[in-house]
């Protein structure tokens, strides 16, 4: 099968469900005397890009950690793809973590591997671990990965080492990996913080497009409010552990945005 028909087939099978892919209900988390999250509730629907804003120390990283249960909540619930994260046993938690696509500020690619091999590592949840370790991927897996690289505009770089790519290109490989993983929820922790403005826009545009196309819900922490207003469907803003704004981007004024960062947190 060539790359394009496979890409269409992947689109067809990923019909968006209607229930939220992520829901936080009354999530509270304290570290000793510091209340990092104070009764935080919001949800993300399939196909929706939600920008998570807030000054340093507002609680953004803690939200990511509670979603992947790297931190246990003190109260409230986190529901990922319909499952209460807190109720999962170790095996179910491992499976759920594999279903969540992760995009980090520092790309987290394996530098000496090609763009294609890095993209193929997104098949980890779909094929046995030994196949991944020995890089024994089937032709179908390779086609899925090549289609994903094509989608992010990097098919011509498939056999180039990751460390020879620009930052923006590496981040697009990370998006291709998420596509190959066929995740329905993507957590992007400051994905464009280390990119120049043009590359940052390009990465967020691709992220927004694939969210729409595949019905993927994206939670993306950002420090650049202009990019959030341009590429996010909704903005969720935190301040001192409290959720202070949750609205569609088109309803949000410059004043509201400035208010998030107004005084030091
Ligand atoms: N492991 C920890 N131990 C103690 N305090 C913590 C821990 N993790 C976070 N905190 C505190 O919880 C609060 C929220 O921190 P968090 O890292 O979630 O903020 P943030 O919005 O991600 O900030 P930044 O934008 O700087 O990354 C801060 O006051 C922080 O000092």
Automatic annotation (TrEMBL):
GO terms for cellular component: membrane. The keyword Nucleotide-binding applies. The keyword Ubl conjugation does not apply. Residues 22-265 form the ABC transporter domain. It comes from the Bacteria. Keywords: ATP-binding, Cell membrane, Membrane, Nucleotide-binding, Translocase, Transport. Pfam families: ABC_tran. GO terms for molecular function: ABC-type phosphonate transporter activity; ATP binding; ATP hydrolysis activity. Belongs to the ABC transporter superfamily. NCBIfam families: ABC_phnC. This is Phosphonate ABC transporter ATP-binding protein. The lineage of its organism: Bacteria, Pseudomonadati, Pseudomonadota, Alphaproteobacteria, Hyphomicrobiales.
């Amino acid at each position: 099968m060539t790359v394009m028909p496979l890409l269409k087939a992947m689109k067809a099978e990923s019909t968006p469900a209607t229930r939220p892919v992520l829901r936080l209900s009354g999530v509270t988390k304290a570290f000793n005397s510091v209340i990092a999250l104070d009764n935080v509730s919001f949800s993300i629907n399939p196909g929706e890009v939600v920008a998570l804003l807030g000054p340093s120390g507002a609680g953004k990283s803690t939200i990511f950690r509670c979603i992947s249960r790297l931190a246990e909540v003190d109260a409230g619930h986190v529901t990922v793809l319909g499952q209460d994260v807190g109720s999962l046993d170790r095996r179910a938690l491992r499976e759920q973590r594999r279903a969540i696509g992760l995009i980090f500020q520092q790309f987290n690619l394996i530098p000496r591997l090609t763009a294609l091999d890095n993209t193929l590592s997104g098949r980890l949840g779909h094929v046995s671990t030994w196949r991944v370790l020995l890089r024994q991927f089937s032709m179908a897996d390779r086609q899925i990965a090549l289609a994903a690289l094509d989608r992010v505009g990097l098919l011509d770089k498939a056999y180039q080492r990751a460390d020879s790519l620009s930052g923006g290109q590496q981040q697009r490989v990370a998006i291709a990996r998420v596509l190959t993983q066929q995740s329905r929820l993507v957590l992007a922790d400051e994905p464009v913080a280390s990119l120049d403005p043009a590359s940052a826009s390009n990465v967020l545009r691709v992220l927004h497009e694939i969210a729409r196309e595949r019905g993927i819900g994206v939670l993306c922490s950002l420090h650049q409010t202009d990019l959030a207003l341009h590429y996010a469907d909704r903005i969720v803003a935190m301040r001192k552990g409290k959720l202070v704004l949750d609205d569609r981007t088109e309803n949000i004024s410059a004043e509201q945005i400035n208010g998030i960062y107004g005084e030091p947190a």
